[in-house]
Design a protein that fits this description.
The longest helix is centred in the last third of the chain and has 27 residues. Helix 12 packs parallel to helix 20 and helix 19 runs antiparallel to helix 20. With about 425 residues, this protein is of the alpha/beta class. The chain has a 6-stranded parallel β-sheet with strand order 8-7-12-11-9-10, sandwiched between helices. It has a two-stranded antiparallel sheet with strand order 1-2. A two-stranded parallel ribbon has the order 3-4. The protein folds into 2 domains: about 160 residues, no CATH class; about 250 residues, no CATH class. Strand 1 and strand 2 form a beta hairpin.
Length: about 425
């Protein structure tokens, strides 16, 4: 099972030993005090958790006994002994390992890690792929640079994200109700609403008047909703509003609750295309500059054979053309309509024409088409893992984005602080 190159494994092991030794030397006084406290409080020095390491070899992860601070620092002993690396797949119990699919076996070709790539993505709410997929990608590209990067990102994400908090099913920011859910559940909901059989049952065979408006909100959207009564009313009446961005995670932390996941439209779209291709659900792409929606359709058909894009239409049209465009949408047979006009125009337009539009699921997707047409590159994964995708967007379009991020983000957090004070009072 050992398929990691010996030179890479040796370099990483040397790094782990060096770092663990330096930390052990620096923390020696604390360790001594913590061991004395553990023995005094509990009569034992360590607590042991049985786990599986490299090549499925059993070991016990150590933690200092007792409730005092610093329990987890005893894990440095495991790194020094070679049970764990600083960076690697999450260590599993024997019971957890038994339920793994066959393709996950490669994770045992390397030492498990104190910091794991999947735990990092969970911490920032973007763990939308399975742990097996994330582990496999990490192991295949494993290097000293990658290990150091994972450690640094995990520490930074811990500072930004804080400790885990209970995640209620609903969130409320400035009177806007947000569904606190996962990417998989959100996709299941969309597919169920878009399914012809589901829509027929939901309307009792009387057509699709009760179709679903789905919206995504980030701090900028919520800043707009704070003062824009019509937009806020549309969000309050939407079938679902989903949370987008690290700003909402920080806002949840300020309100004393947890965010289940960052269910942003940019990450959801390719997964929706995959599901739509499998389920035979047609899409209609409306919005962005001329030629952009066509390029998105071409790119996604190439990535997901069988995907039906029933029609495309750019967003640069006037009121006189609306009736014809709505007719094209309705005649296309599309079950999911994606509208990329930008906030709040796209939500207001969908609300205005809700009785005329027939696709049972309608989504406002902002600048999503620009990413998937290739016009604007997406932030690299390592930036998204630490919640700094907004920095990438600012660097891409500083003239358009500076006000949203440099003024809007602090304003959003200030308004959340006011809401938290009001709720406490």
């Amino acid at each position: 099972m050992r398929d990691q190159p010996s030179s890479v494994a040796g370099t990483i092991r040397l790094f782990d030993l060096t770092l663990a030794s330096l930390l052990a030397a620096a923390l020696a006084p604390f360790w001594l005090a913590r061991l004395l406290a553990a023995g005094w409080q509990t009569g034992r020095l360590f607590e042991r958790e049985p786990l599986l390491g490299r090549d499925r070899q059993p070991f016990c992860r150590l933690a200092f006994a007792g409730p005092a601070a610093g329990r987890g620092l005893a894990v440095l002993f495991n790194v020094l002994r070679g049970d764990l690396a600083f960076a690697g797949p999450r260590p599993l119990t024997a019971a957890q390992a038994e339920s793994l699919p066959l393709e996950a076996e490669r994770r045992f070709s390397v030492r498990p890690g104190v910091f794991s790539p999947y735990q990092l993505q969970r911490q920032t709410g973007i763990a939308h792929d399975s742990e097996t997929q994330v582990d496999r990608a990490f192991v295949e590209r494993m290097s000293l640079r990658g290990s150091v990067g994972l450690i640094a990102r995990s520490l930074l994400a811990g500072l930004l994200g804080g400790s885990e908090r209970p995640a209620p099913p609903r969130l409320d920011f400035f009177g806007v109700p947000i569904v606190n859910t996962t990417m998989d559940e959100a996709l299941d909901w969309i597919v169920a609403r878009a399914s012809p059989a589901s829509a027929e049952r939901a309307t009792g065979g009387q057509g699709e008047a009760n179709s679903s408006l789905l919206a995504f909100v980030n701090p900028d959207c919520l800043n707009i909703a704070y003062t824009h009564d019509a937009y806020r009313a549309v969000l309050q009446g939407a079938a679902r509003v989903l949370p987008d961005g690290i700003g909402l995670k920080i806002g949840c932390r300020m309100l004393g609750v947890g965010l289940a996941a960052n269910v942003n439209g940019t990450d959801l779209f390719p997964r929706l295309c995959e599901r739509a291709a499998r389920e035979g659900l047609a899409l209609f792409l409306l919005g962005a500059r001329p030629g952009v929606a066509e390029q998105v359709a071409e790119n996604m058909r190439r990535r997901h054979p069988g995907l039906i894009v029933a029609g495309v239409q750019h967003g640069y049209f006037d009121a006189a053309e609306e009736a014809a465009i709505i007719g094209r949408i309705n005649g296309s047979g599309a079950r999911i309509l994606l509208v990329a006009f930008g906030v709040p125009r796209q939500e207001l337009w969908l609300a205005q024409h809700r009785k005329r539009l027939q696709p049972p699921v309608r989504m406002g997707v902002g600048g999503l088409f620009d990413f998937y047409s290739g016009r604007i590159p997406r932030a690299p994964l390592w930036l998204r893992e630490i919640g700094l995708e907004w920095v990438w967007r600012l660097a891409q379009e500083p003239g358009r984005m500076w006000r949203r991020y440099l003024i809007g983000n602090p304003l959003f957090l200030y308004r959340v602080w006011l809401q938290a004070r009001k709720e406490k009072a």
